[in-house]
């Protein structure tokens, strides 16, 4: 996953993201929201389970968002 882009996107939009129904308060929350949405949509549309950790190499991105905190 492109950490730099997500961090920039989060910083530019954090007020809107936090004040949304999902109350996204960190880059980690944003990452969780994106992966959950993709997983849910694939499951709903195709009745398939997709491994978003493998899809986005999330096992290698454990430190995402640390620079912001």
Description of the molecule:
The chain has 69 residues and is an all-alpha fold. The protein is 58% helix and 0% strand. It contains 3 helices and no strands. The chain has helices at residues 3-18, 27-46, 52-55. The model is unreliable at 64-69 (pLDDT under 50).
How much β-strand is present in the residues? under 5%
Q: Percent range for helical residues?
A: 55-70%
Counting DSSP E segments of at least 2 residues, the number of strands comes to 0
String of helices and strands = HHH
Name the overall outline.
flat
Ends distance: 19 Å
Task: Please tally the helical runs, counting DSSP H or I stretches of 4 or more residues.
Answer: 3
Oligomer: single chain
Structural class: mainly alpha
**Unreliably modeled segments:** 64-69
- Rg estimate, integer Å: 13 Å
Mean of pLDDT: 88
State the major sheet.
Answer: none
């Amino acid at each position: 996953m492109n950490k730099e882009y997500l961090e920039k996107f989060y910083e530019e939009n954090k007020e809107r993201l936090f004040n949304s129904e999902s109350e996204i308060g960190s880059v980690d929350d944003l990452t969780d929201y994106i992966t959950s949405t993709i997983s849910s949509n694939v499951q709903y549309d195709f009745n398939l389970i997709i491994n978003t950790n493998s899809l986005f190499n999330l096992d290698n991105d454990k430190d995402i968002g640390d620079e912001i905190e």
